[in-house]
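Z., the sequence and structure:
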Amino acid sequence: MRSRVIAVMAAAVAAAAALAQPAHAAPLVDGVYRFAALKDGKCLVWPKLNGNIGVVSLGACTDNASTSANWQVRQRPNGTMEVSAPGSNPRTCLRVTPEHSVVVNNCADKYAEWTVSYGSAGPGSVVWADIEHTPGDHSGSYGKLVDSPNATGRLVVKQAPIEPHYWALQQVS
C-alpha cells in the first residue's frame, strides 16, 4: 500500500513539473497579432508616417493617428514568414537593416523573412512569441527581435541566444 501511495505521489509531482516546463515553440498560424513586451506591456508598433516606412519601436498597444500595434503574420512560399503592416499599399514589412535595427520597409528581400513561433508555460500562463530573423537563403543575417536598452527608440536583431519569453502574444479580432 505504501509503495502505491509513493507511486501516485511521484506521478503527481512529475505531472506538475511537466506543466511548469515551457511548451515547445509552435509555428504561429497566419493572422493579425500584437506583440507586447512582457516587462512593461508596451507593444511593437510601426510608424504610419512617410508611406508606412520607418523605424519600429515600442508604444501603446492600440491604434492611433501615428502608430499601429497590429501586425499581419503570414507564411511565405519558402517556409519563412513575413510580418507586415496590414492594409499598407504598397505592402510594407518588418525588415532588418544592415546595422541590425528593425524598420518597416519593402517586403521584397531576405531581410523581411522571419520565423514566428509561440508557446507558454502551461494553463493560465502568458503565451509568448518568438520573432527570429531567418532569411530563406540561410545567410549569416539571423537573430531574435529584442528591445535593446542601449538603443533608444528602436528594436534590434541580436545574433545571440535569447529567451523566447519576451513578447506576450495578443490575437487581434
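DSSP finds one helix and 15 strands in the chain. The helical segments are 2-20.

Let me know what you think.
H.
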